[in-house]
Write a structure and sequence with these properties.
single chain; 650 residues; Rossmann fold; GMP Synthetase, Chain A, domain 3; 5-stranded parallel beta sheet; 21 helices
Length: 650
């Protein structure tokens, strides 16, 4: 396979070399259906011909919105085959969030998975008059819709099939016109500030990085992958689209997000990717189930988990372990780790990755200690994901690995990490000012992340450059404040779901906390602690004690870090509602919008810094059906113990 290739060309190679091999599987009505490379190529050809007839031209943009489905992937390939550009959008985005990308990219064509997505696109049509064609995949509920330009994919495919029969060479001729430097896809980043930006990638930038990652982890066509994250997220796109076409492995599409965990167990992927919150959720559910188990089972679990913690990571890294420990671990594998990997659906995983946020050391160690090769990588939408990767025997919780093939890294004077790589974005669409801000004339990309390269050559990320602040006044005057670092340390506790930390330019650090409703609810039930919903549970004095313990553990930890001892938390409160993307408090990739939250909850932030012990608040919330309501509560505010920095021994 040449180094320079394009997506449709890879499809045609697989279809000619192994037409019967499975390319994708989709679960429908509880049964897995396979789609071969040969059949996929035919489907793509027919869709491309249909889109061509409908007027999709070279350089046009087409929006695809929905969950991972074979026809969504086939549509992306069909669009690319015509030299046009697919733009995946988040399927859970509210209708108004779709307006900017559609207008910014002058989108005339859209693929919508089902009635929900069609409704969304029809709703914004007045604001996007150029949106002429909307094609739906799943016809349920759409029979009586009579809208201009709305048609089913079946109809489009049938028209394409007729066209392709008359023009058999059309498809291959179109594919032959595309070069590896042409634009292949565009991804809108969920901006924590301002409008999202369209990140433009070429066939080259995406496939070069897909290949680098595949070579690093020796991926083959035998891998099984579960595609369950939004296709609009570049991580999902690299793992189940770019690497899928590059390696030719099987991508499995779950029936729905509700069945994803069951589907995960049935598929048993060999190559798995999830953001830390998914691994956190898995561990929380295991712990909740263990607490509910009988005492013999529970004691056995804790005993062998201690063995795993002590021995597992060393075994994973191929280090020397005593014969006794090896035997104990083998026993644990039979009774605990094996069944546990099975329950999680990770028994066949050869390589598992996490990225997007920092992962807690305890969480990271837990998975590695039970024999799951969990590693971290570093990258972003603009770098086509792969910048740094962790070699199998050098996976550590506090670094994101070493630069992978073709990548150069340097650290600027202000601590910002700069990257040079074949996977860099071409530009931000129609935004030359933003492009010039991140790409230097000599090809270095500004990541906006602060970090450093450690003695082993591994990259360590501290925080976003713009978020790294200073404490002013108080006991830690002048100390560095890294909010994300502090937030992540707290989120590593199973009872804490979200954290927002403040402290830049102030005399101390204060935080707003969201409890994990499932984990804390289970904890309360085992203590016969009655509660009426989230708001009530969040304000229980016992819950405050539980959270305070977590905060003080983090403070003790931070005090041992010379650089970040000043980031210890002085006061906290537990919020009366869960932070939500629909209320604008999180981005669609669940990142905290710190500035927005500071404005929205100004009275709470003021109360924390004014030394108050309680504060009343009323907040408007948006329900799933679009109605609004309000939640009010009087929140308690707690002081916590901070520790003097531990002086390093001279």
């Amino acid at each position: 396979m040449g180094t320079h290739t394009i997506f449709p060309q890879l499809l045609l190679q697989h279809a000619s070399q192994r037409p019967q091999a499975a390319a994708m599987r989709e679960k429908e009505y509880g049964i897995w259906q396979s789609l071969s490379w040969g059949d996929l190529a035919v489907m793509v050809e027919q869709l491309a011909a249909g889109l061509h007839q409908a007027g999709l031209q070279r350089g046009d943009h087409m929006v695809v919105v929905g969950a991972n489905r074979p026809r969504l992937y086939a549509t992306m390939l069909a669009v690319q085959s015509l030299g046009a550009v697919p733009i995946p959008l988040y399927q859970d985005a509210a209708a108004p969030e779709c307006v900017f990308p559609i207008n910014n990219a002058e989108v005339r064509f859209a693929f919508a998975e089902d009635q929900e997505q069609v409704d969304k696109l029809l709703e914004v049509r007045e604001q996007c008059p150029q949106l002429q064609h909307i094609y739906f995949d799943d016809p349920r509920g759409l029979r009586n819709y009579d809208q201009p330009g709305l048609a089913g994919m079946d109809e489009l495919q049938a028209a394409g099939k007729a066209f392709a029969a008359i023009h058999p060479a059309f498809f291959r001729d179109e594919v032959a016109k595309i070069t590896h430097t042409d634009v292949a896809a565009m991804f809108f980043t969920s901006g924590t500030t301002g409008n999202p930006k369209g990140v433009v990638h070429t066939h080259d930038s995406l496939l070069n990085r897909a290949r680098a990652g595949a070579d690093f982890d020796k991926l083959t066509s035998a891998e099984e992958v579960l595609a369950y994250m939004p296709p609009a997220w570049i991580g999902q796109n690299i793992f189940s689209y770019a690497q899928w076409l590059s390696c030719g492995y099987v991508v499995n599409c779950p029936e729905s997000s509700a069945t994803a965990t069951i589907d995960l167990k049935e598929i048993g992927p060999t190559y798995y990717f999830a953001p830390p919150r998914v691994f956190e959720g898995m561990l929380t559910s295991v712990m909740i189930r263990m607490e509910d188990a009988g005492s013999i089972k529970r004691n056995m679990f804790h005993y062998f988990m201690n063995v795993a913690k002590r021995v597992g990571p060393a075994l994973m890294d191929g280090l020397e372990v005593s014969g006794v420990d090896r035997a104990l671990y083998a026993l644990g594998n039979v009774f605990v780790y094996g069944p546990l990997r099975n329950t999680l659906g990770l028994s066949r995983v050869r390589v598992a990755y996490t990225a997007g946020e920092a992962i807690g050391p305890d969480l990271f160690t837990f998975y590695r200690s039970i024999g799951i090769n969990l590693k971290q990588l570093y990258g972003s939408t603009e770098t086509a994901v792969f910048v740094c990767l962790q070699p199998d025997n050098q996976a550590r919780a506090d670094t994101v690995g070493v630069p992978c093939a073709g990548v150069e890294i340097k650290v600027a004077d202000n601590g910002e990490i700069l990257v040079k790589s074949p996977g860099l974005l071409k530009e931000y669409y129609k935004n030359s000012a933003a492009t010039a801000e991140v790409l230097t004339a000599d090809g270095w990309y500004h990541t906006s992340d602060a970090g450093f390269i450690d003695a082993q050559g591994h990259l360590k990320i501290i925080d976003r450059v713009k978020d790294v602040g200073r404490i002013k006044g108080g006991a830690f005057d002048g100390a560095m404040f890294a909010p994300k670092y502090v937030e992540n340390k707290l989120k590593f506790f199973q009872h804490i779901k979200e954290v927002v930390a403040y402290g830049d330019g102030r005399d101390r650090v204060c935080v707003l906390i969201n409890i994990d409703f499932d984990a804390v609810g289970n904890w309360a039930e085992r203590r016969n602690l009655p509660y009426a919903g989230y708001t009530d549970l969040a304000q229980k004095s016992q819950v405050y004690e539980l959270i305070k313990e977590c905060v003080e553990k983090v403070n003790a930890d931070l005090s041992a870090d010379a650089l970040l001892a000043g980031s210890q938390i002085s006061r906290f409160l537990v919020l009366h509602k869960e932070l939500d993307a629909d209320d604008g408090e999180l981005t669609r990739t669940n990142k905290v919008r710190r500035g927005f939250i500071a404005d929205k909850y100004q009275v709470l932030v003021d109360a924390l810094y004014e030394g108050k012990s309680t504060q009343f608040i009323e907040t408007v919330v948006k329900f799933e059906d679009g109605r609004t309501g309000s939640v009010s509560a009087t929140l308690r505010i707690e002081d916590t113990q901070t520790f003097a920095p531990v002086k390093a021994a001279a």
